[in-house]
Amino acid sequence: MELIIATNNAGKVREYKEILTPLGYQVFSQSEKGVHLEVEETGKTFQENALLKARAVYDIAHCPVLADDSGLEVAALGGEPGIYSARYKGLATEHSRRMAILDGLRDKPDRSARFICCICYLDADGQPHLFTGVWPGHIALQEEGSNGFGYDPIFIAEDADGRTTASLPLAFKETHSHRARAVGMLMAWMGREKGR
Q: Is 152 a catalytic residue?
């Protein structure tokens, strides 16, 4: 069965191909199927944004589509940056967005935070199936590490032995992260569906 990944991110497509091809899916990027668009993320939640991206591609390609949306929520900042993680406060660089988080927490004792990833899978009939992975932790006092990207240098997961995600091997994130958890739920569901 053909499946389109609703993204222009080559790395993300490669990851999903490695995961889903063994389950019997022929996985394609949206551009490989002639779908050239950037969907504006106007949803109010990760789930809404994932569904928006999946639906836009499905309406053109009319076959199963997978999309995801993810970000960081910091409790003491009222859940910010949340769905605006990639464009927090309009700042242009990942470093400046990380510094905005650290500055915002300077006088706050609660540093708890969590990464969230929502995967939306639209089946052949266009019915949505949503899978949400949550990775709890807290924000470090300063940046540390060079592995990963985004907020990895300031995020310490609850299962990371006190080290930032960027200080750990990439394999740790690939098996423990919010995306890994959401993908695990998706794969379990796909396995059950295939067995029917």
A: no
SS3 77: helix
- What is the greatest pairwise CA distance in the chain? 54
Evaluate whether 165 touches 143 at the Cβ level (below 8 Å).
no
Helix (H), strand (E) counts: the chain: 5, 6
Does a cis peptide bond (omega within 30 degrees of 0) precede residue 81? Answer: yes
Phi, psi of 28 (to 5 degrees): -130, 150
| Structural domains present in the chain | 2-194 (3.90.950.10)
Helix ranges (H only) for the chain are 10-20, 46-61, 94-104, 170-176, 178-194
Give the three-state DSSP class for 111: coil
Q: What is the pTM of this model?
A: 0.89
Percent of residues in the chain assigned helix, strand, coil, to nearest 5 = 45, 25, 35
pLDDT in tens, 52-64: 999 999 999 999 9
Catalytic residue among 59, 69, 125, 152: 69
Tokens 């076959």 belong to 63
